[in-house]
Design a protein that fits this description.
With 247 residues, this protein is α+β, with helices and mostly antiparallel strands. The protein folds into two domains: 9-124, Pnp Oxidase, Chain A, CATH 2.30.110.10; 131-246, Thrombin, subunit H. The protein is built from four helices and 16 strands. The strands form two sheets. The chain has a nine-stranded antiparallel β-sheet. It has a six-stranded antiparallel barrel with strand order 11-12-13-16-15-14. A hairpin with a 4-residue loop joins strand 2 (37-42) and strand 3. The protein is elongated, with a radius of gyration of 20 Å. The two termini are 31 Å apart.
Length: 247
């Protein structure tokens, strides 16, 4: 049984629930830029159709989506007040619920607008052992964004599947779904950095008890060689060993 399957609803809520308005808008805007496909379940008859996210309009508190190819389904969808959206970008399930839709014209064609969701849930299909990295002398992640901006951020956590980065401010040129081709991670015991490609999978806005805000950027490694996976696993094992020795 997977780790996800063993979680209670409360644990899923705590670990995977996103309620930050800014983070939700940012993620949806990224899915819209990537023209991500979502299935929409609605109505008492459990109707389903495929749609594409077209745009986020924060000033109007709404999400623009493509219509179904069926006039009958479109009509029933407009009568629904509870709509469940589900997608699997990068193998990670994303779902949210919206209220009733309205029909409008968008970029010369018919489309639907639904209220922006108040929360979202992300459920990763397969979790890898992940460890938080030391705060003193942190592991650093370096890359260059498509617009040429250099990015250097401390690593919050790492696994063989990806990293979480801490950012005091969110780079303007960064978006969910963006692929970063030339990245490097400097692990302290290695003579040379890990060189890799990664995809931006999620961005979360966090607030500490003191009111301090920062961003957590989740990256998924792309085709990381087994040799580099082994290097990361050795680093994780060493950090775990050191922490057990200090406990």
């Amino acid at each position: 049984m997977s780790q996800i399957a063993q979680l209670s609803e409360a644990e899923i809520e705590e670990r995977f629930h996103i309620s930050s308005r800014t983070a939700i808008q940012f993620m949806l805007a990224g899915f819209a830029r990537e023209r991500e496909s979502f299935s929409v379940q609605f109505g008492a008859a459990q109707d389903v159709f495929l749609t594409t996210l077209l745009a986020v309009q924060p000033e109007k508190e709404r999400l623009i989506i493509d219509c179904s190819g069926s006039p009958e389904i479109n009509k029933r969808f407009l009568d629904s007040d509870h709509n469940i959206f589900v997608a699997h970008p990068g193998g990670i399930q994303v779902h949210f619920v919206s209220g009733p839709a309205i029909e409008l014209n968008f970029e010369g064609g018919k489309a639907f607008a639904v209220p922006l969701p108040k929360d979202m849930v992300r459920l990763q299909r397969r979790e890898h052992f992940r460890i938080e990295t030391p705060r003193i002398n942190p592991v650093m992640f370096l890359t260059r964004l498509p617009d040429g901006t250099s990015l250097s951020l401390p690593v919050h956590d790492i696994s063989v599947a990806g990293v979480g980065l801490n950012a005091p401010l969110l780079p303007d040129a960064l978006s969910v779904g963006m692929r970063l081709e030339r990245c490097s991670i400097v692990l302290p015991e290695l003579s040379s950095p890990l060189l890799l490609a990664a995809t931006v999978r999620n961005v979360l806005e966090l607030e500490s008890r003191s009111g301090h805000r920062q961003w957590r950027i989740g990256l998924q490694f792309a085709d990381l060689p087994v040799s580099d996976q082994n290097r990361i696993q050795r680093y994780i094992a060493r950090i775990e060993h050191e922490r057990r020795e200090l406990a």
